[in-house]
Design goal:
The complex is a heterodimer of chains A (about 160) and B (about 170).
Chain A (H helix, E strand, L loop, with lengths): L1 H11 L1 H8 L3 H27 L9 H29 L1 H4 L3 H20 L2 H4 L9 H21 L4
Chain B lengths: L1 H11 L1 H8 L3 H28 L8 H29 L1 H5 L2 H22 L5 H4 L7 H27 L5
Helix pairs in contact in B: 2-4, 3-4, 3-8, 6-8
Classes of the chains: A mainly alpha (about 160), B mainly alpha (about 170).
Chain lengths: ~160, ~170
């Protein structure tokens, strides 16, 4: 109820109207969003597969995390900014949408798991025996895949 | 026109009709298509950045390419299959969409760029495998690949806004 009236208010704001009126803005922001998702997926794929023991096992885990974790953070900032613009432009499509909130919850879970289980690896190159890296690696990849599906389904619900 | 007949025949296929009629089919295939594209771009980006001169998680360019390219190819095949299914659901509209036509051209150009790289700079990779930055030919291939795949993603997203027939 509160969310609905907030969405209606947001929809009427000049900035929201402008984003919709300039027709190239939404596709351009969505394209940027998609490119940033590709950066997260590519980085997470190599990093998590390394930690799952599938890829680049001849390189220390710390080296691989050092290469890809900063790119995940950068891409997440871009995703947050472009995602916010998309919500401002089309509040009804997102704020009242269960799939949208599911996606947000999953992104938060992925963010917290990365922060708790991946960031410490930056400072402990080579040694990650204390952390159950493998199951979390597969869980992380699964969460990112579900996030992508949720993202596309927002447009249809 | 034979092309129009063929496109109409694709549109009339039972599988095309079922994608149009089942409300969840199109978004599901589209989600798989997005997943495949992010895997293609995400993995190729790592290789391209190495070719342009940014260090990767390993020094050897040759090993990096052999390590990641299988993932790119599997994801590309998934993107082509899902893309063909999405196309079939509305073949005439896609075929007449300028962004779709440009997207196919950009994919062809990216393929040509890759073929040129593999028949030239990649042939001599043993000479520059550990070099940072790599030779100009490799850097040019990397830049072109980055630009073309970015274009592919942007054009792909634009199709969703310019396609004539929406159901």
């Amino acid at each position: 109820m509160y969310m609905q009236s907030f969405g209606e208010w947001l929809y009427e704001t000049p900035i929201s109207t402008m984003f919709r009126d300039i027709t190239w803005i939404i596709p351009a922001v969505q394209s940027t969003h998609l490119l940033a998702i590709a950066v997260v997926i590519g980085s997470a794929l190599v990093m998590e597969l390394r930690l799952a023991g599938v890829l680049a096992t001849d390189e220390p885990a710390g080296t691989v995390v050092q290469r890809y974790l900063p790119w995940i953070w950068r891409a997440l900032v871009v995703l947050l900014l472009t995602g916010t613009l998309l919500v401002v432009a089309e509040p009804a499509r997102t704020l009242g949408n269960t799939i949208f909130w599911t996606k947000m919850a999953l992104v938060l879970v992925a963010f917290v798991l990365t922060l708790v289980f991946r960031r410490p690896l930056l400072r402990a190159p080579g040694g990650h025996a204390a952390i159950p890296a493998k199951p979390i690696a597969w869980l992380m990849l699964l969460i990112w895949v579900v996030v992508i599906f949720c993202g596309r389904f927002i447009a249809y619900t | 026109m034979s092309l129009e007949t063929t496109l109409q025949q694709i549109y009339d296929l039972p599988i095309s009709a079922s994608i149009r009629e089942n409300v969840n089919a199109f978004p599901l295939i589209e989600s798989l298509h997005v997943l495949a594209i992010t895997l293609v771009f995400g993995t190729i980006l790592i290789v391209d950045l190495r070719l342009v001169g940014f260090a990767s998680h390993r020094r050897s360019a040759d090993k990096l390419i052999r390590e990641l390219l299988p993932y790119t190819w599997v994801a590309f095949v998934l993107a082509v299959i899902t893309g063909a299914l999405l196309f079939s659901s509305n073949a005439p509209a896609y075929a007449n969409n300028p962004e779709f036509q440009l997207k196919l051209l950009a994919i062809a150009a990216a393929g040509l760029n890759m073929a040129i790289f593999h028949t030239t700079a990649h042939r001599r990779i043993a000479d520059w495998d550990l070099d940072l930055p790599p030779p100009a030919a490799a850097r040019i291939s990397g830049f072109l690949s980055l630009g073309l795949w970015t274009l592919v993603i942007v054009l792909g997203r634009w199709i969703g806004f310019t396609l004539d027939v929406l159901f």
